[in-house]
């Protein structure tokens, strides 16, 4: 057995965002490049593409519903930030959670998972699709996923922020990043677009 899954688990447990935040808050967030587009299927069995969110700030994360540790923690953190965004959530800021286990995470399973976390589905999409397509989307965002024999999926836990113009701006690694900073980054990208 290689050390590859252990490295992924280590990456998923690392604290902090994947970007440096040494700049004062009045400076723009860094630009990584065009966010990779995708078309997948939502919890409502509707085709959803990243370009459907043009004009909104989007947080894209990768999870799976059978995960028992970091995925539910990340989803719960995002749900708490969703609440703190108030009326901006939905019309101006959206969350997208993409499964890394599309074989088991059907639209119905994703919908039940979303509801269990109090996700506001007017602004939060849970996506699945053909396994090869989902794998490719993850790869383009820097997410590596590998299914273990017991069905668990070792994967990098990466949350990406995309600005209203479709540009990838910030990526947070792990689940222990500062939620206030995450919220502030979402609002900062929204302010930039005004």
Describe the structure.
By secondary structure, the chain is of the alpha+beta class. Helix content is 30%, strand content 24%. The protein has five helices and ten strands; from the N terminus they run H-E-E-E-E-H-E-H-E-H-E-E-E-E-H. It has helices at 4-13, 70-84, 107-116, 131-140, 179-192, and strands spanning 33-34, 39-42, 47-49, 57-63, 93-99, 124-128, 145-147, 153-155, 158-162, 167-173. An eight-stranded mixed beta sheet has the order 1-10-9-4-5-6-2-3, with helices on both faces. Strands 7-8 form a two-stranded antiparallel sheet. Strand 7 (145-147) and strand 8 (153-155) form a beta hairpin. InterPro entries: SCO1/SenC, Thioredoxin-like_sf, Thioredoxin_domain. This is Electron transport protein SCO1/SenC. GO terms for molecular function: metal ion binding. Belongs to the SCO1/2 family.
Features:
8-stranded mixed sheet; 194 residues; copper; 24% strand; alpha+beta
Instruction: Give the C-level CATH assignment.
Output: Alpha Beta
Provide the succession of SSEs.
HEEEEHEHEHEEEEH
Count of helices? 5
Overall number of strands: 10
The tally of structural domains comes to 1
As a percent range, the share of strand residues is 15-25%
Largest sheet report: 8 strands, mixed
Can you give the mean pLDDT? 85
Helix content: 25-40%
Shape assignment: globular
Going by helix content, strand content and strand pairing, the class is alpha+beta
CATH architect. name: 3-Layer(aba) Sandwich
In the sheet with the most strands, the strands line up as 1-10-9-4-5-6-2-3
């Amino acid at each position: 057995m290689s050390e590859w899954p252990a490295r992924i688990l280590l990456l998923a447990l690392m604290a902090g965002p994947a970007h440096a935040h040494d700049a004062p808050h009045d400076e723009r967030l860094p630009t990584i490049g065009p966010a990779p587009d995708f078309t997948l299927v939502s919890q409502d069995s509707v085709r959803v593409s990243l370009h459907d969110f043009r004009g909104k700030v989007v947080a894209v994360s990768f999870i799976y519903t059978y995960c028992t540790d970091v995925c539910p923690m990340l989803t719960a953190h995002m749900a708490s930030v969703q609440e703190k965004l108030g009326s901006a959530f939905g019309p101006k800021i959206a969350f997208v959670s993409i499964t890394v286990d599309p074989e088991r995470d059907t639209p119905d399973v994703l919908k039940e998972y979303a509801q269990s976390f109090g996700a506001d589905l007017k602004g939060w999409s849970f996506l699945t699709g053909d396994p090869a397509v989902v794998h490719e989307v993850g790869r383009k965002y820097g997410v590596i996923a590998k299914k273990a024999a017991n069905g668990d999926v070792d994967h990098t836990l990466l949350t990406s922020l995309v600005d209203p113009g479709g540009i990838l701006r910030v990526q947070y690694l792990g689940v222990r990043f500062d939620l206030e900073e995450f919220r502030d980054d979402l609002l900062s990208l929204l302010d930039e677009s005004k």
